[in-house]
Design goal:
Elements (H helix, E strand, L loop, with lengths): L1 H14 L3 H23 L2 H18 L9 H39 L7 H20 L2 H12 L4 H8 L3 H22 L1
Helix pairs in contact: 1-2, 2-3, 2-4, 3-4, 5-8, 6-8, 7-8
Length: 188
């Protein structure tokens, strides 16, 4: 396969610092990765963003690639991570927009549609107490709660990100919940 020999040669030259080879390697990656990104995101702009972010990560981390035969799986893994990050960001953005919309509606009415003014005030104070309690948690506990509750990751994904086992990730999450519960009990 001629393409494989070409990319291996470009890869070796790019790793040694050749800018022309890095440009050719980037062109090969762009050509091969764009269709994958588009099929996954179904959005041309998002696909271009994913490929650009992947190329930037490739350029920055090319020296960390240990096995040159694993180049394409490495590139696709980076791209998949960028796609997942984009999805999470869009989901978070839509949640924030929905919350802002409901807050604006509540502000225009004086309170939310199902809430009395007292209920709205209680909900607001509760959210503030929870946010303050989370802020007072130790950094590892905040991280595990964010990964599990906000990013909606399962224990295997959390374990991969925190470089631990799924059982240990579950234990850390349980301890983080327990710590948050005790912090909230102190507030009341």
């Amino acid at each position: 396969m001629n393409d494989d020999r070409g990319y291996i040669q470009f890869l070796a030259e790019a790793r040694s610092g050749d800018r022309v080879a890095m440009g050719r390697l980037a062109t090969l990656v762009w050509d091969r990765l764009y269709s994958f990104a588009f099929r996954t995101t179904l959005d041309h702009n998002a696909a271009e963003d994913v490929v650009q972010d992947t190329l930037l990560a490739m350029i920055c981390r090319l020296g960390t690639l240990r096995d040159t035969r694993r180049f394409w799986p490495w590139i696709y893994r980076i791209a998949w991570s960028k796609i997942q990050n984009g999805r999470r960001d869009r989901r978070l953005r839509s949640c924030i927009e929905a919350e802002l919309l409901s807050t604006q509606t509540a502000a225009s009415n004086g309170f939310a549609s199902d809430d009395t003014p007292l209920d709205a005030q209680i909900r607001e104070e509760t959210l503030q107490q929870v946010a303050a309690a989370v802020d007072r948690l130790r950094h590892p506990h905040r991280d595990i709660l964010e990964l599990r509750c906000y990013d909606d990751l399962d224990y295997a994904e959390i374990a991969a990100r925190t470089r631990t086992t799924p059982a240990r990730a579950r234990t850390h999450f349980h301890r983080a919940k327990k710590s948050l519960k005790s912090r909230l009990a102190c507030c009341t």
